[in-house]
Design brief:
26 strands; globular; 30% helix; 15 helices; alpha/beta; AMP-bd_C; Long-chain-fatty-acid--CoA ligase; EC 6.2.1.3; four-stranded mixed sheet
């Protein structure tokens, strides 16, 4: 298999004058970008970096971040991106864990990087202007980019490590997920095939390049001689403007960003006619948002994608409207099973429609091999050649997979296992609901009770009446009575991670703002 450096050169050779990257007013063709990547590779080597070294990048989605990613692929360095909002202790942990040789940062996280003790012993390369003086006398990104260079020559093999992503770390320390060039290329090829990308596609590069969805968008565009339009930080109005100005043809976002984009379009308008392909991942998309998005865009292809940093694609459904809630079937490079919740081996397969844990075959072309320096995490998640996702779900009679939540999010009420996703889909269809998340709160009688946290479209409406209306809505649906929310909490925002995943643990802990500017508030009860 080709390494990623040679993969990039394919596009340069096929379409040297095609536009490859846009970042504001900066526009580069594949031939121009190749020459600038060559300068950066030479600059990195001039700093003494060698094949197999880790490069920590604490950067937003900008030209420099994408250029650094590709330079690492050519130089045989391991791109190790980190959330640009990271706190000093997070920078400390990841820099020490990966034994990084250089750190790239920018003004938006300058304070956190300066406060990190672990990076004081390595060069810290500034991208753009800083508020303070350079750290440790390191060259700037602009200086590295201007390094004289010869022809760009790939120095990595398909078996070298390309990338190490850190998981979000919602429980405990984040885990490093090392991925080889062949893993990354297979995942990008699968993404192209499963989304039916054509040569010259144009995508919005807003999913962060420290997240697998952002990396996939970057690599996929190179495979099809396409355009990656950088967007450092999501803004709904700016998203609509970029889609129209750059003729974006394909979007691959988390549901939260689609929700915000549509809400903005409904308020102020926006032309989405260039978009022909939609893809989403990172979280389930509830029925109401599916319908709104399908109506607003009318895409040729609407793909529900389910995966992770460890095994990029678990499953896809290329017609998200066909069976709302379904995650489809195993991806082109993957095998899946659902095993019983109490299974001790991956061979204890759950019955049709029986909820269990989703596991993926580690022999798949996109699958990682192990965590970085985390034998404890390997012991928990890797079982006899299968990766235990920690997600719950089931296969229906047609062989379609339904993802119902996380094993840790399972609500156990009165001895019944209840997954939040089905409830959220029903509640989301009520016209008064903007967003909803469901969690289990401690209950002396039932163990846990089902509580719906709702962001309303009209926060001025009567809360008690709205709670009663939501309860009536659930009673009239096909939702089993034991799954029906027993309480409703109206909140100003649903707590989410930087990439849009609902943080149910914060709801359970009372870390949210109820309507009226108060902290955690008593929920509005529903009748039993």
């Amino acid at each position: 298999m080709l390494d990623l450096g040679r993969t990039f050169l394919q596009s340069v050779e096929r379409s040297p004058q095609a536009l490859a990257i846009v970042d504001g007013d900066l526009r580069r063709t594949y031939a121009q970008w190749r020459d600038e990547i060559a300068g950066l590779v030479a600059g990195l080597q001039g700093m003494g970096l060698a094949r197999g070294d880790h490069v920590l990048a604490v950067l937003q989605n900008r030209y420099e971040m994408a250029t650094l990613h590709w330079a690492c692929q050519f130089a045989g360095l391991i791109m190790t991106p980190l959330n640009w909002r990271a706190k000093p202790e997070e920078v400390d942990y990841c820099a020490a864990d990966a034994q990084v040789r250089v750190v790239f940062f920018e003004a938006v996280n300058e304070e956190a990087v300066r406060a990190s003790k672990a990076v004081q012993t390595v060069p810290c390369v500034a991208v753009g202007a800083l508020a303070g003086a350079p750290i440790g006398g390191a060259p700037t990104f602009a200086q590295l980019l201007a390094t004289p260079a010869g022809a760009l020559q790939p120095q990595a093999s398909a078996d070298d490590y390309s990338l190490m992503l850190y998981t979000s770390g919602t429980t405990g320390k984040p885990k490093g997920v090392p991925r080889r060039h062949r893993h990354e290329r297979a995942a990008a090829l699968g993404h192209v095939a499963q989304n039916l990308y054509r040569r010259g596609e144009r995508t919005l590069g807003v999913m962060p390049l420290y997240h697998t969805m952002g990396v996939r968008s970057l690599l996929a565009m190179a495979l099809v001689d396409g355009l990656f339009v950088c967007m450092p930080k999501f803004d709904a109005a700016q998203t609509l403007a970029i889609i129209e100005a750059e003729g974006i043809t394909c979007l691959y976002l988390v549901p939260t960003l689609y929700h915000d984009m549509l809400s903005c379009q409904e308020r102020q308008g926006g032309d989405l006619s260039s978009v022909t392909k939609l893809g989403f991942a990172g979280a389930p998309m509830h029925d109401a948002l599916l319908q709104r998005l399908n109506t607003a865009v009318g895409p040729e292809l609407f793909v529900n994608h389910y995966g992770s940093s460890e095994v990029y694609t678990f499953s896809i459904d290329q017609d998200a409207m066909r069976k709302p809630g379904s995650a489809g079937r195993a991806g082109i490079n993957t095998r899946l099973r659902v095993i019983r919740l109490d299974a001790q081996t991956p061979d204890e397969v759950a019955a049709v429609n029986e909820e269990g844990q989703i596991v993926a075959d580690l022999s798949g072309d996109e699958a990682f091999e192990h965590y970085w320096n985390r034998a404890d995490a390997d012991a928990k998640s890797l079982r006899q050649g299968w990766y235990c996702t920690g997600d719950t779900g089931y296969f229906d009679e047609d062989g379609d997979l339904f993802v119902t939540g996380r094993v840790d999010d399972m609500i156990i009420s009165g001895g019944e296992n209840i997954s939040p996703v089905d409830i959220e889909s029903v509640v989301s269809l009520h016209p008064g609901v903007d967003e909803v998340a469901v969690a289990g709160l401690r209950d002396e009688r039932w163990g846990q009770r089902v509580v719906a946290f709702v962001k309303r479209k009209d926060a001025e409406a009567d809360a008690a009446a709205e709670a009663a209306a939501l309860d009536a809505h659930c009673r009239q649906s096909d939702l089993p009575n034991f799954k029906r929310p027993r309480e409703y909490v109206f909140v100003t925002e649903i707590p989410k991670s930087p990439v849009g995943k609902v943080l149910r643990r914060k709801l359970v802990a009372g870390e949210y703002e109820a309507e009226g500017g108060q902290g955690a508030a008593p929920a509005a009860p529903a009748k039993s």
